[in-house]
Amino acid sequence: MSRRAPTKIPLWAYVPERVLGMARVAALLAAAVAIVLSVWGYRARAQLTERLIDTGSAMLHYDGATRQDARRTLVFNGQRIHLSSGKSPHDLHQVLDFYEGHCLDHDGGLIQELDTFVAEHPEVQLNTDAMDPILRTESGGRGVVACLYMEETDGTKGFMERYHRYAQSGDLSEIGDMRYIYAEEDKDGDGGTHFVAFWTDGPFVLREMLPAEGDAPGQDIRDVDRPDGLRRFLSVHESGTPQAMTVYVSEEDGPTETDVEQFYRETLVRRGWRLLEGEAPAPAAALTPLTSPAPRVLAAERSERMVTLIFSTNDDRRAVTTILEAR
């Protein structure tokens, strides 16, 4: 293949680093989803350990896995995200190498073009780390690989065309599908590596998923009232199951954490729920990095349904309320 003409190569100098780092945007989004998934798994703590295990789609299949779960689908603020988990006998570094290789094979031709440009033009100063379309981090027996899966191999020119379509539509799939893998060494069992992957296939409209104002797409938990002054920030449910999770954040000058807890204690009883006092099995610890150090927990049941409410305060001093439903 012929090299790019010198008059065209400087195109790299005009490509914003934030554009070529779109995988990092996907990684940040995926990290937020990872928190949701960890919360989701806590509906039974033992299940979380069991479900941090291989990846499920054909694209993310790990041939050396000793166990592989079927694909599950979450509807996350109206957008669909798939996930699967498994366990490999290989060490953490090998597992991350495998998935990084998967990303390298589907990077849209960007890395090869960047490497060629850097080799031919050493005089041009580029932050190649920031422009790398693949994110990989590894520390303390844990690691992450994230990227955008791009079928095309048309390099910068095609990428910019797809990015322009994304900028108009807000649909991440115009650029590529999200791939995110979290892996962790099994230090308590028989060795190897637990890992969980989630990915998108097809439309994933960030603009609709994260509105600038008003409620996020989704639904409130049935038969659980919402106090005035709370905005729905997150709504998640798993396709084919009754499980659901909703997160609310108080608006400016809205109710405090204490106000919100008191509201739910009163209204749940009026709605026919029975409060379960004492220590409730809830994912409070999973929310700690984002909220107050000691979230308060309240559980209630009605017939075969159970809801768990977690009350906390974020760094902006706004009340955060997480409600999980299980049957």
Rg calc:
22 Å
Q: How would a textbook summarize the main sheet?
A: 13 strands, antiparallel
Unreliable spans are 1-28, 34-59, 279-292
Mean residue pLDDT: 74
Structurally, the number of domains stands at 2
Strand and helix order = HHHHEEEHHHEEHEEHEEHEHEEE
Shape: globular
Content of β-strand: 25-35%
Helical coverage, percent range: 25-40%
**Class from helix and strand fractions:** alpha+beta
Beta strand count: 13
Helix tally equals 11
Question: How far apart are the first and last residues' alpha carbons, in Å?
Answer: 59 Å
Give a written overview of the molecule.
- There is one protein chain.
- This protein has 327 residues and is α+β, with helices and mostly antiparallel strands.
- It has 2 domains: 199 residues, no CATH class; 97 residues, TATA-Binding Protein (2-Layer Sandwich), CATH 3.30.310.
- Helix content is 31%, strand content 28%.
- The protein has 11 helices and 13 strands.
- Strands 1, 2, 3, 4, 5, 6, 7, 8, 9, 10, 11, 12 and 13 form a 13-stranded antiparallel beta sheet that branches.
- β8 and β9 form a beta hairpin.
- It is globular.
- 38% of the residues are buried.
- The N terminus is likely disordered.
Give the SSE layout.
Blueprint: H1 11-14, H2 17-20, H3 22-41, H4 45-51, E1 67-68, E2 72-76, E3 79-88, H5 92-104, H6 110-120, H7 128-131, E4 134-139, E5 142-149, H8 155-169, E6 177-185, E7 193-199, H9 206-209, E8 230-238, E9 244-250, H10 257-270, E10 274-276, H11 284-287, E11 296-302, E12 305-313, E13 319-326
Antiparallel strand pairs: 1-3, 2-3, 2-8, 3-7, 4-5, 5-6, 6-7, 8-9, 9-13, 10-11, 11-12, 12-13
